[in-house]
Amino acid sequence: MAASDSTLVDKPSTFDLDHCVHCGLCLNACPTYRELGVEMDSPRGRVYQMVQVSTGTAAISDSYIEHIDLCLACRACETACPSGVEYGRLVEAARAEIENNVRRPWPARLLRNLVFARLLPSRTALRLAGLGMLVNQKLGIRKLLRGRLAELDALAPAVETPFFYRYYGKTLPAEGEPRYHVALLGGCIANISFARLNEATVRVLRKNGCDVTIPHAQTCCGALHVHAGRREEARELARRNIDALAEGRYDAIITNAAGCGSTLKEYDELLEHNGEYAGKARQFSTQVKDITEFLASIELNPKMNELPITVTYQDSCHLAHGQKIRAAPRKLLRAIPGLIVKEMALADHCCGSAGIYNILHTDMSMSLLEKKMDRVRDTHAEVIATANPGCMLQLEAGIRKFGGATRVAHVVELLDEAYRSSSR
Ligand code: SF4
Ligand code: SF4
Fold this sequence. Notes:
By secondary structure, the protein is α/β, with parallel strands linked by helices. It folds into four domains: 99 residues, Alpha-helical ferredoxin (Fumarate Reductase Iron-sulfur Protein, Chain B, domain 2, Orthogonal Bundle), CATH 1.10.1060; 50 residues; 134 residues, Glutathione S-transferase Yfyf (Class Pi), Chain A, domain 2 (Up-down Bundle); 114 residues, Rossmann fold, CATH 3.40.50. Helix content is 51%, strand content 8%. Helix 3 packs across helix 6 and helix 11 crosses helix 23.
């Protein structure tokens, strides 16, 4: 841990909490409140509980932890709030306070340490996990699973080989005259389960005049750690990523995962008290661009063939509410010849994925997913487009479980399909 981080107290600030005027205008935007109708599972109720804890009126009780844990951190309440309450920041700080003060039962501690401290930050561990999952896939062991294990397995990503790691340390040149030099962050699990998406992202960037560097020393962005309240580990990962990209001069740092992008854009906040890294983090964060944001901001290569499909777009929470990006992915979809966009109702309502929420709170997650798939079905679209691998997994599970469309694709994969069909 950097010495300058050690003075931090990670908990909701009373200054931020005081912005809430208890008007309740956020309630209808909140998925957990809409499902349960319980005030303590609404944004206003959760802010109230945070105030109680921060003033010492209430302790960090099991009930408090349950209500904070059940929040999807989707930040829809932030969009709805007229008083500018930065709810995402508050709930992340509340989770950090819980993490730092409450000793969870040992099985939960063991699992969390394995996932957050051993698996996600380690390329070797992820590779080994990927190979294990591959063996499982090939031997068909998953077909033997029953009950809760089968339910969890249905939400797990499939492994795609070869892993995207083979591109690490390389720069892939632009097709034609180079216009930009960008760095691509490959994610953590995405390297083993979304290699096709990362490869499509590289191809589309190269088609659009980008030299694409995949920095070798990059690591997991720390988003899942932040959401789980493990901010010190997230800070360590942030410093590693900042160092990994320090040598290059990039026009943009690109991510195709909205959940990662939200956290990468908030490295400045994560490291604001670190004398050595605060400035570097500010610069890093301003360079981060979601792939849809970047492509929509440049002159798009128009040489695409027709893609005669009907698509409905699901806003990823961390793109729409976290990064306030809604128009860019829609603009890109509409730029594809032949592609028809049909908007679904409540497209910016959470699909229930929310990082590992679908594994921890499967009933709530499935209930939200079922409603999402009903709205997809109403559009009669064949394809659900979105901009976050986590949402893609959840929506794919939704198609298998509830029907409603034939496939899920990232916006950049649809662009790639249109470019590739034009070059055949
Ligand atoms: S979070 Fe915002 S919208 Fe919700 S009750 Fe507080 S002030 Fe009102
Ligand atoms: S982040 Fe989402 S689930 Fe949590 S309180 Fe806000 S709207 Fe509700």
